[in-house]
């Protein structure tokens, strides 16, 4: 994973487009997981600035209940995620496994974080503070139907003209967007 100099955060999408009158929502087709995954990945890329704002707001509100627990939890998850990225980027077998089985890798990463946090009861505040924003983001990304602007923006990201933080994160998790999808 190469971090290039032209990484930029996309603009905040208008509220009307995000959840308002222009937004179209529909339950995804659970029988077609590839198409559902494609919808989630594309919405994560297109609305990433909105998702960052919403998740940060929820995270801060949850952190206000117990700031020390939130700080410890944040540091712990950062260490686990950094270890996962380091291990999977430096060994070919793990790179191949991550690319071939992205769902297993993400589930393993979440399970490791859960196991560590479960060991330390203090971190329940962090679990709430991180899972609620993730749940909100994933529900929106699953239900929000794509529009023309979304599709064009994602094409630019997928061919590498413009790099975004969400594109880099999805690539690290083995969910990179392929050109033409």
From TrEMBL:
It is a multi-pass membrane protein. GO terms for cellular component: membrane. InterPro entries: Prenylated_rab_accept_PRA1. It comes from the Eukaryota. Keywords: Membrane, Transmembrane, Transmembrane helix. The chain crosses the membrane at residues 44-62, 68-88, 100-117, 123-143. This is PRA1 family protein. It comes from Branchiostoma floridae. The gene is LOC118416566.
């Amino acid at each position: 994973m190469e971090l290039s100099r032209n990484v930029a955060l996309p603009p905040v999408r208008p509220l009307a487009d995000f959840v308002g009158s222009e937004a179209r929502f529909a339950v995804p087709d659970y029988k077609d997981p590839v198409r559902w995954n494609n919808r989630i990945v594309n919405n994560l890329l297109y609305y990433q600035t909105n998702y960052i704002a919403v998740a940060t707001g929820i995270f801060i509100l949850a952190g206000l209940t117990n700031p020390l627990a939130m700080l410890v939890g944040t540091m712990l998850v950062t260490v686990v995620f950094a270890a996962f990225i380091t291990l999977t980027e430096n060994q070919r077998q793990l790179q191949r496994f991550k690319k071939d089985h992205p769902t297993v890798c993400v589930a393993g990463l979440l399970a490791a974080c859960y196991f560590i946090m479960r060991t330390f009861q203090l971190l329940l505040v962090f679990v709430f503070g991180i899972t609620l924003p993730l749940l909100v983001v994933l529900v929106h990304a699953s239900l929000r139907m794509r529009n023309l602007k979304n599709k064009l923006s994602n094409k630019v990201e997928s061919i590498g003209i413009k790099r975004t933080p969400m594109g880099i994160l999805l690539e690290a998790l083995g969910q990179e967007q392929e050109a033409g999808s």
